[in-house]
Amino acid sequence: MARMCKFGKPVGTIMQVAYVVDDLEKAAMHWVKNLNIGPWMIMEHFAAENMKYYDEPTSVDLSVAMAFTETMSFELIVQHDDCPSVYKDVIEKHGLGAFHHWAITTDNFDADVDRYLNDGAKLAFSGEVVPVGRKRFAYIDTGGNLPGMIELIELNDAVEDLFASIRVQSEGWNGVEPVRRLG
Predict the structure, then answer these.
(1) Pick from 94, 88, 90, 68: which is nearest to 16 by CA?
(2) Which of 42, 77, 84, 113 has its CB surrounded by the most CB atoms within 10 Å?
(3) What confidence tier does 131 reach under pLDDT thresholds 50, 70, 90?
(4) DSSP secondary structure string, 78-110?
């Protein structure tokens, strides 16, 4: 039996679905109005380091918005610059508003990345998220075998606490303050 994350999903299962957009607040309000998902937590200029895009260093500038419905997280992503990226790739191929990736949590980051690579997938984007203890993320390009990428998120208490705090705000949410900013 898989360990349960603090935000209610078993480790190793899909916990998030993500889309690329051009305006976080506008997109978040669209999701609020049409799907009643919220509140959305916006993180401006997401703090990540040691980022690589297909093995090449990058300094892509991103902002994200996250919200939960029950135990499923949704993420909206905006890229602020013109760096080559997995986000620009999807926008060029499918346009803004397109599905980007599923996120899966892991307690065995290196082994899980290796498993995908050994199956013929490519490591498209990776880095370390600074505010949560330099935990790693990796986007796996499955070469068109799936309609999007897979993001692996390395877990620790800080990562789980972040997602749990966003989920808690969605429980019993009454529509007040649909867009919020996280420091």
Answers:
(1) 68
(2) 77
(3) confident
(4) EE-S----HHHHHHHHH-TT-EEEEEEEES-HH
3-state secondary structure of 40: strand
CA atoms within 13 A on the CB side of 29: 5
Give how far Cα 86 sits from Cα of 20, 30, 52, 64, Å: 10, 24, 10, 14
Please provide the size of the chain in residues. Answer: 183
Say what percent of the chain tops pLDDT 90. 88
Q: How large is the average pLDDT for residues 58-62?
A: 94
Q: What are the chain's domains?
A: 14-172 (3.10.180.10)
Cα(85)–Cα(56) distance, rounded to whole angstroms? 10
CA atoms of 22 and 76, how far apart (whole Å): 9
What local confidence, expressed as pLDDT, does residue 145 receive? 80
pLDDT for res 118? 96
Q: Let me know: does 75 contact 18? Beta carbons within 8 Å.
A: yes
**Residue 67 CB-density burial (10 A; 0-12 exposed, 13-18 middle, 19+ buried):** buried
For residue 104, is pLDDT > 90?
Answer: yes
